[in-house]
Queue: 2 jobs
Job 1
Amino acid sequence: PVTAASIVVPYGHVIGNEKWRGSEVAQRLQGKVRLIFEDGLGLVDFHLSNGTCILLISEADLVAGDEFKRRLVRFRNASSLRGIVIVEKTPISDQYYLGVQKLVVLELGMVLLPVANQGEASQLIIQLVSFCVREQSRDRGANPFLRKQRAQLAEPAVLQTVQQIPGVGKTKALLLLQQFGSIHRLCNASINELEEVVGQTAAQQIYTF
Amino acid sequence: SRFPALCVLADSREVCSGPEVISCLRAEHGLRVQVCALGTSDYIVSTCLAVDRLLQSELQSPSNRNKLSQRLQRLQGSFQRICVIVETDRVRPGETSRFFQRTQHYDGMLSALVQAGIKILFSSCQKETAALLKDLALVEHRKGAAIQVPTEPEGHRRDILNFCLSIPNLSYSAALNLCHSFGSLAAMAN
């Protein structure tokens, strides 16, 4: 069955595909995350908390040929879940990595993360789970790469920008902004209006700019 | 040479830190590489995509965390799409290849990048990084986002470019587009 449907994952849990029961990854995950096994997950290996799931590609899959590629494409076409592909990149499977990366990241637009063995895979999954949980609990400040919306004062920036006009330094920029208030009004000022604030030469320069 | 239209902007610091990337892009892939003071990112591949080149050791070391997050947050302010290329550190002559010990911090950084929607690519050397940049440029070209304006404006346009560059949250590529679409500041403001 080619299922890749979304399933409800209890908060802070991971649902693993039955086929991983007893594997090294599963053993290392147990105790660190709350892992439940389920049958019939189809293409997916692990479901994380918030619509994110993991597809695990082993060294053997890579060497065996293109079957795993079909699996990834089928997943991409069948599911709207966010898929993270974890691939076992070893000295043996290394030669295939660039090709896989091109397919997964550039063509399918999914996430690809290399690990050296199943032990590293379980460590990585633990970190991914902890970020999923934190995101669900709206503790978004925890992510150092998410942009925080902060109000930025416009005045210093506008002053900087006005100083880029040829012939305008800090003093003239201040005078111009006091008189015209905004860049839009400054741009539409007539040469006479400009001359009242700055000298004739500068007014000419600003006007032609 | 098959894609004469493809153009990539490189930050001037990359001339020192990634000379092989730039020369490979030019010589092997036939891309036009324009070196300029981007400041915010290492490469700009299209009007929407900025690429940062990170060494694996930079991602591995906790002391870099703040610098990196500030840098990427600023990038997110001016670009729709961001990609990082994680490059394996070069083994210097005389140095035996150091065993890479994967840390919890490293996995945490990767998870944070994934969660923030930042694309991650892995490369084992500067040559591979160049090939990845070319692939990215091709994908962006297909999306219709390639940089297609002249990258070295002169005279009056140069002044207008500098004016645009000082506007907060406006990327270098967006500023280039603006300065080529409008002949004067008055035209732009209206």
Job 2
Amino acid sequence: MKPSAKRLLNILVPVKRSVDYAVKIRVNPEQTGIDTNVKHSMNPFDEIAVEEAVRLREKLKEKVTSIKAITIGPPKSIETLRTALAMGADSAIHVEVPEPGPSPEPLAVAKTLRAIIERQNSAAKSPADKIDLVILGKQAIDDDLGVTGQMLAGLLGWSQATFASKLEVDTEKGEAFVVREIDGGGEELRCRLPLVVTTDLRLNEPRYASLPNIMKAKKKPIEKLSPADLGVDYTPQLETLKVAEPPKRVGGGKVANVDELIAKLKEAGIEAA
Amino acid sequence: MLRTSSTFCRRAFVRSYATATSPHALVFLEHRGGVIDSGSLSALTAAEQLGGQVSALIVGSSDHVPGVVDKVKKLKGVTSVLHSTSPQYAEPVPEILSPLFESILSDSTFTHVVSATSSSAKSLLPRVSARLDAPTISDVTSLEHDASSGSTTFTRPIYAGNAISTVRAPSGIPIKFFTVRGTAFAPAADADSTAEATAVDPVEVADPVTVHLKTTIAKSDRPDLGVASRVISGGRALKNAETFEKTLYPLADVLGAAVGASRAAVDAGYADNSLQVGQTGKVVAPELYMALGISGAIQHLAGMKDSKLIVAVNKDPDAPIFQVADVGLVADLFDVVPELTEKLKK
């Protein structure tokens, strides 16, 4: 049977530039945020999202028509898009927000993504050009909110598969089989496309971009848009009153042997159950 | 120009005053097979701290809901219980539950929607909140509601717990959605009172876009990691799954502790994913947290540094875990753990 145009996949991968996961962050003296003059990189969960999109193409070949990365952030976020392109995305969109400024809230990000998807899907000449799969990280490691994917699925009325540790897409049937990480174990779902997936750490092991691919990525197209182009208001709904250091824990020193350790446990009222 | 703006200001002021109603929280109360999740009990306590009415919402299949309703009616702080039963609600599929929430919230006095920071609520609440054009504030550790202005102030950890953010949801957000970090609030206890229960018609979803196929729960006789008062955790140093089990489980049994693991141990296959403690796993705050062969990366510390007593055993005297440990022992865990287990037995 000749594959019909319907059975092609366009994947959108939103990525975020965040403080590198290995950086020990410091709260600024004004207590308005953290010192951001540190190493940044792609949010680790988003790397997994890009990797998954690229692996889907490796598996489904030409059935994956396009992989588009998108970021909403300050001018420097373009580096994050280049990383995504070097990993295997075809093109990218940069919705630029001024720096310094509050980073857009998840709901505004979800609305931006919806606007991008609706823009592309209403302009699509055939269903083959429509975005039908969005893969996001399950949370950004800076705000640790973990809500954007669910919000996007809600706004679009699409199916959602959060905390995915396994994803199999059947383009013929237009559905996906997903294994999710849940409290205490796992869960298997069958989701109909179009679908929003959020990645768990266990979904895959992201690749390193090779030097030739980094060079090639420089030639891949990045479209620049402003929030106004998409009609999204980035005024925060929440007011951040303060960002503070957590209460400091002081190490209590070391003991020399097991007996001293047991004595310390007893002191704290801990004995065999 | 000036006049218009001052009229506008006054009107906005008057309006915010007029709309500041007494808080009424809807708590998404979770249960598995009729057993109430302890995180939900903490969410009830958090909801009670808003200072108004607290309605618990229980959804599920007809097998379990009646029993859960009976238990929840008697919990402290609960002023009413809503329940909705449908075969479709047997598993918490967000695409199926979202319309029910929208229906309940569309015509009501609810000012807050609250849940535990559980995997199912984390999937559901943001979906519903986006449909109502409201944010979801995740993993709240404390809160304060100002009844006169209708604003609620929350604190929550950011950057893997390395900073604490205080945010205010102003009165302009009519329904405030938030999830609650279980270890930061005591679970609601039983009370003498009995709240009234009301059945809510389910909102059937014809031809749902997502179908639940199967749930696999890792079985364990030990206390649940999220709520255990003692946790024994192992890291990469445990070598393999067999050694992990052989070394840690006897000690855990002696102490009546739950077993946890670092991401390294989980990734290497020594322990099940559900045992992972950290930023991307479970957040625990037990009386005793024993970190064995765990170096103490920030992502791991994010999940356990609110524990009351932290004990670390590590061969490396410079391991970062010693900076947070109350009691540290620089030694080979393969010597220490058996000795400790034996001596504790006595």
